[in-house]
Design goal:
By secondary structure, the chain is α/β, with parallel strands linked by helices. The protein has a single domain, classed as 4-Layer Sandwich (Metallo-beta-lactamase, Chain A), CATH 3.60.15. The protein contains ten helices and 16 strands. The strands form three sheets. Strands 8-7-6-5-4-3-16 form a seven-stranded mixed beta sheet. It has a seven-stranded mixed beta sheet with strand order 9-10-11-12-13-14-15. Helix 9 packs parallel to helix 10. The longest helix has 12 residues.
């Protein structure tokens, strides 16, 4: 496995046809003012909610995970329990995934990472995984694949000419990665541990994934003018005190975030079992602050951007 390093507070890896560069908060506004691939038509993006649930067991919802297909390339955001099965149900081949983005390292967002990586190589995956996440991601990756599951790289190496290749990248705020097809930006969130939200752009289209967070000014800035905001909405409004204690959000707050960001459409996700049967009520609450379309997510929901 290859691990990236830090150089004067900035992580930069350059490879053929792609540029990876992590920048400080001072330049995020300039990045947002600069169109993605100015003058080029963007590719169609499709969002698949592969996990609309939370850390509590729910027979109807897998834990947090989302796929954004940019053209034919699937990008995976979070990888909680049930992700692998949901990918297969959605018709997404795990071997096609080369990049995994983690909003934070809580188990309901990251537990299935080693399983997905291992099974992808057993299924014949070529190339490597790039794993992006907040501070601690490199250690997370190293411990899993060198200490907890060291047999995985060994088995893959034994049955194939090429071994298991995973490169972790620790993300702050700014440009995460850029290709000829798309770019991904990030901003810090407020969840009690290091966390980041992601903005995916292709041409003039943009999708933002919040991860777990309280309402956040940096997230509002990142989501400015996006076509779609996928925001955690863990509990109904009458549980706002519990949401504050656990660093989560309720629908009226999420609606205000969407309103201030000026997004076109809002999806409520990361729904705890306490939300069951109250989804319409939560949509109405978000709409009391936001005039755009609001959707309560469910597993395998597909949205074209």
């Amino acid at each position: 496995m290859a691990f990236c390093g830090r150089v004067q507070g900035c992580i930069c890896i350059v490879s053929t046809g792609e540029l990876f560069c992590f920048l400080g908060e001072a330049r995020i506004n300039n990045l947002l003012r600069t169109p993605c691939h100015s003058g080029r038509k963007g590719l169609e993006m499709k969002v698949v909610i592969t996990g609309s649930g939370s850390s509590w067991p729910d027979p109807d919802r897998s834990s947090a995970s989302h796929v954004i297909e940019v053209g034919s390339e699937p990008l995976l955001f979070d990888c909680g329990p049930g992700t692998g099965m949901s990918l297969m149900k959605a018709g997404i081949n795990p071997t096609a995934i080369n990049r995994i983005f983690l909003t934070h390292l809580h188990m309901d967002h990251s537990l299935e990472v080693p399983s997905l990586i291992f099974e992808s190589y057993l299924m014949g995956k070529n190339g490597k995984f790039d794993l992006y996440g907040p501070t601690g991601t490199a250690y997370f990756c190293r411990i899993l694949l060198e200490k907890v599951y060291p047999y995985a790289p060994e088995i893959v190496g034994r049955i194939r000419k090429e071994g298991l290749k995973v490169t972790p990248h620790e993300v702050a705020e700014g440009l995460v990665c850029q290709t000829k097809k798309y770019r991904v930006l990030s901003a810090k969130t407020e969840h009690g541990i290091p966390g980041i939200a992601f903005r995916i752009e292709s041409g003039k289209s943009a999708v933002v994934i919040s991860g777990d967070t309280r309402p956040s000014k940096s997230l509002i800035r990142l989501a400015r003018g996006a076509d779609l905001l996928i925001h955690e909405c863990s509990f109904p409004d009458d549980m706002i005190e519990f949401a504050r204690t656990t660093h989560h959000s309720v629908p009226s707050e999420v609606g205000e975030v969407a309103n201030q960001a000026g997004v076109k459409k809002l999806v409520l996700t990361h729904l705890f079992p306490q939300c069951k049967g109250r989804e319409r009520e939560m949509v109405r609450s978000a709409n009391s602050k936001f005039s755009g379309k609001v959707i309560a997510s469910h597993d395998l929901l597909e949205i074209k951007v």
